[in-house]
Amino acid sequence: MAALTRRQRARAFRGAQYALLAVAVLVLLLLADWERLRQAFFDVEVAKAQFPDILATALVNTVVYTLLGFGFGLVLGLVLALMRLSSVPPYRWLAVTYIEFFRGVPALLVFIALGFGVPLAFEVALDKYVTVMLALGLVGAAYMAETIRAGIRAVPKGQMEAARSLGMSHGRAMISVIIPQAFRIVLPPLTNELILLTKDSSLVYLLGLSLGQYELANFGRDALNEHKSLTPILIAGLLYLMITLPLGHVVRRLEARTAKAS
Prior knowledge:
mainly alpha, 11 helices, single chain
């Protein structure tokens, strides 16, 4: 018998993997306790009990928290990016220190510091929405600053030279010509950052929210304790996917458009 070619060996190996996977799935289907799984993950009565509050309160709050953090982080990130590119050394040092610190510190610690440390140290009560905006924004700004800085540097130098030749000051040229082009370049990674902030908004549960301030993770956790079923967690996860999957699709479309334009 002739020896198999490399392509035939690869095909045979792939076929063996598929067969092994099919056997494993079949065994799982035969041995699984489907009634127990249904009660744990797909309890219809528990699922019905989550609506409409999980949409009207938890989902809305998740979106609001994310947008607050993203908006604040975007503005701060732009300022940090410009400081990072500044010819004034102290501005660069401050921006680098901030970026390295908040990229290296877990978002969890930032939430704890703003939610509990600042009120204790300075005897000031921050509004929950302000706390969330600051916590998400401070962390997000460190990443967005580097993204925006890369976008500004990606704009051809000739754009600045052309703007200056038209009589624009450096600041005017940066605002009117360079930054708009940079944002078109960095729109895909900024959308990715929005996805990350959506998931990081689940850390809001640390702040001890009232029922009307619950986001998806907190809502799902309380419902889990109440019903002793993972169904609320599954629903919360699906609602997170309703936010992140369309955003992920937007990122892929934007990246494809950018690659085609280049």
